[in-house]
Design a protein that fits this description.
Elements lengths: L17 H27 L5 H9 L18 H13 L6 H16 L2 H13 L4 E4 L15 E5 L2 E12 L6 E9 L6 E9 L5 E5 L10 E11 L4 E2 L5 H37 L11 H29 L3 H29 L12 H12 L4 H12 L7
Parallel strand pairs: 1-4, 2-4
Antiparallel strand pairs: 2-3, 3-7, 4-5, 5-8, 6-7
Helix pairs in contact: 1-3, 3-6, 4-5, 4-6, 6-7, 6-8, 7-8, 8-9, 8-10
This protein binds flavin-adenine dinucleotide.
Length: 396
């Protein structure tokens, strides 16, 4: 395998401007200087994609969605999702882009205090700092209404207790944005709240989960054992936690769609390239419809998912949180499914080579499945669409 990734089939994007297309081309060019081999070498060595991260930061790509006055590019999720998708097309999907600038950067930029913005946004924008995001809990899983990580007041401080699981990149992030709950003084009910927890805060323990996933970002189980935080650790308004949470979750879904689409386009390009030249009968294998049609189907699925992803990003950047919610869920669903099918078909198209390390596709089978499970599973999106879009009753 060479690092000169074959051109990924792609249609002109309906909602994209000339600037967007120029951004795609520039990111693609940076990504192709690294390529799949760089990424798999880093994973094999148990390292991180620091060089690529630094180069992307230098070019201004990592903070392209963050406000200019805090060192960002002044763009939106549309631009950041282009960065992630194109790095994926080059074989280097950077999961931390979903978490650090997209979720945490967005939440702080929209709801943080002036001090929090000044402290965090310039570092998130120039890539010198990262922030992880922890919502999933072992006993709550997909039912995030059931999370029990609790913050209680002690004087002006907050004290957090609880557990989180599958939180990505905690080891390489200076802090984690933790979703906890505080008690409503009036009703006694628990309501969601967001806290910035520094990596070295006393009582904040982490252990790495042994994942069968070839990715530079590791997943962690976290224990918060009376983690004491100053009042300024609370992000935004204590009474508007849910709204603030959703402000971060829509970008998360849009970015996960971009993450999946980058991988899908990379895999499809490899398969198409192989099918054009691999010949075991009279014609290259790509002439057999049993090979060509599933690849064509994968291309259609990818392009449809890209349209919905662009629509979701467009709505989100236009300030339509409700409209973006439905589109972001649908985009994540469509992109996750497109990626799982495209990667599976790509591996199959390469025959035995699909399972070799040289072609680097087999490890994508697991990576593509992440987009079906996280941050919200395929079934939970189907539930959302059943209830929210179609008005069907709930079974749970
Ligand atoms: C690689 C990776 C990285 C991750 N990174 C992060 C991170 O950075 N931060 C973070 O907070 N979390 C992270 N997660 C966690 C991820 O968001 C959860 O795995 C996901 O939300 C699903 O929760 P669960 O694993 O507990 O599955 P469960 O909730 O136990 O679900 C198991 C299965 O049951 C199905 N199911 C559950 N409820 C229903 C229902 N009502 N109807 C139909 N089907 C249902 C699900 O669809 C799924 O197939 C990550 C996960 C992975 C794999």
């Amino acid at each position: 395998m060479t690092d000169s990734t074959p051109a990924a089939p792609s249609s002109p994007a309906l909602l994209e401007t000339d600037e967007h297309r120029a951004l795609r081309a520039a990111v693609r060019s940076l990504g192709s200087r690294y390529g799949r081999r760089y990424f798999t070498d880093v994973v094999d060595a148990g390292g991180h994609t620091d060089e690529l991260w630094a180069d992307a930061a230098k070019a201004g790509y990592l903070g392209v969605n963050l406000p200019e006055e805090y060192g960002g590019g002044g763009g939106g999720i549309a631009e950041l999702s282009i960065v992630l998708e194109e790095l994926g097309v080059a074989g280097c999907p950077l999961l931390m882009l979903v978490v650090s600038p997209a979720i945490c950067g967005t939440v702080i930029a929209r709801f943080g205090t002036e001090e929090q913005k000044r402290e965090w946004l310039p570092g998130l924008a120039d890539g010198s700092r990262k922030m992880a995001f922890g919502i999933t809990e072992p006993d709550a899983g997909s039912n995030s209404h059931r999370i029990t990580t609790t913050a209680r007041r002690d004087g002006t401080d907050w004290v957090l207790t609880g557990r989180k699981v599958f939180v990505s990149g905690v080891d390489i992030a200076q802090a984690t944005l933790i979703v906890g709950r505080t008690e409503d003084a009036r009703t006694g009910k628990l309501k969601p709240c967001l806290f910035i927890v520094p990596r070295d805060a006393p009582g904040f323990g982490r252990s790495q989960i042994d994942m069968e996933l070839a990715a530079p970002e590791k997943q962690f189980e976290l224990v918060l054992d009376d983690v004491r935080l100053p009042a300024e650790a609370l992000v935004g308004d204590e009474d508007a936690g849910l709204l603030q949470l959703f402000a971060g979750l829509n970008p998360e879904r849009i970015m996960t769609a971009a993450f999946a689409l980058g991988m899908a386009r990379y895999a499809l390009a490899q398969a198409v390239d192989y099918a054009r030249t691999r010949q075991v009968w009279k014609q290259p294998i790509g002439a057999h419809q049993a090979i060509a049609h599933p690849l064509a189907q994968a291309h259609i699925d990818i392009e449809l998912a890209r349209l919905m992803t662009q629509r979701a990003a467009h709505l989100y950047d236009a300030g339509d949180d409700m409209g973006a919610g439905e589109a972001a869920n649908m985009a994540k669903y469509a992109a996750g499914e497109a990626a799982v099918r495209a990667v599976d078909q790509a591996v199959h198209t390469l025959g035995g080579n699909g399972l070799t390390r040289e072609y680097g596709l087999a490890s994508m089978v697991t990576a593509a499945r992440v987009a079906r499970i996280a941050p919200v599973s395929r079934e939970m999106i189907l539930n959302y669409v059943s209830h929210q879009s179609l008005g069907l009753p709930k079974s749970y």
